[in-house]
Amino acid sequence: MLQPFTCTLNPARIIFGPGKLAEVANEIVGQHCRKALILSTPFQQQDAEKLSEALGYVSAGVFAEAAMHTPVDLTEKALAAFEASGADCVLSLGGGSTIGLGKAIAYRNDCPQIVVATTYAGSEVTPILGQTENGVKTTVRDASILPEVVIYDPELTLGLPVGMSVTSGMNAMAHAVEGIYAQDRNPIASMMAVDGVRALRDALPAIVKDPKNRVARGEALYGAWLCGTVLGSVGMALHHKLCHTLGGSFDLPHADTHTIMLPHTAAYNAEAAGEAMKPLADLFGGDIGGGLWDFAKSLGAPMALKDLGTTEADMDRAAEIAVKNPYWNPRPVEKDAIRALLQRAWEGARPQS
Ligand code: NAD
Prior knowledge:
The chain is α/β, with parallel strands linked by helices. The protein is built from twelve helices and eight strands. The strands form two sheets. It has a six-stranded parallel sheet, with helices on both faces. Nicotinamide-adenine-dinucleotide is lined by residues 41, 43-44, 68-69, 94-98, 100, 118-119, 121-123, 126, 128-130, 156-157, 159-160, 164, 168, 231, 254-255. Pfam families: ADH_Fe_C (PF25137), Fe-ADH (PF00465).
């Protein structure tokens, strides 16, 4: 039976397809802007410079210092560059780190953001910003943070390394898995969650086999859009909180942590989430936890937290932090059960429900 729901859809303009990067200049003008400051990481600086050259007078230059976890001092430096450049919007070319910097700028000066997304993490369609100051990561949600335009051009993902394609794809799936049992779930977000996971389930093995497979790259980016939209629409639970704890307390890599944890958190919630989770479980042979674990293993994904440099004592601490700040989850968050879950994730063992 359909449960009562409230559904808020985030306004965003999505432009999808091979070669769509060519539409960037029109989109800047479409936002009633004159010049964009192009943001990237140092790794993607060359691509950003190339784009800047192609844009000509619509480009206000490149700021290529985006970094993981959006440090506030870097945002301040980027803001100064934004003002000095005469830009009136930002153009973020990259994954969650670069998009995070664009969001942090827009959160402070409300400038329009155009994003060209080149990973599958999904940040480009959420009004959520995580930023770090003095070693503490905080998360804010605000309408000014949501990018106005997102361009998904699969051609730009052909060079995304296979390992990163897999982990950022699993990171996207995690948004959908948690979104489908969210306390504030709604039928639209759930539909997106199912097709998003389906698309990534089909695309990732094809990308592992042939990273230049354009059809699979397009399918993966489509899945990333849907899964990211779910993250931006409904609340997250145990999985995202545990990954936040692990990432924040032990400085673990974001996408790898999500990849390792997802089968275990999904298994933890499988029974309690029951009917809501069934369409996703069906995509993995009926057992969501075991099915996701087998899927990740078949793709050569990282499987064990111990391989990320953590110790068993760290797992004790993580379990303690996780139960200290109770939050909504379909199954109660119990310390012994969470510690057992973390042990399996640490060892790289197949999950148990
Ligand atoms: P990333 O942005 O950190 O990128 C990792 C590296 O890959 C960078 O060096 C980048 O330049 C490079 N790269 C990106 N695209 C490439 C491509 N197509 N080809 C070659 N190299 C490429 O990685 P990510 O996983 O996209 O983002 C992780 C960050 O995003 C985390 O800090 C996480 O907290 C954040 N995030 C935020 C949200 C949100 O809604 N706020 C959602 C998901 C992730």
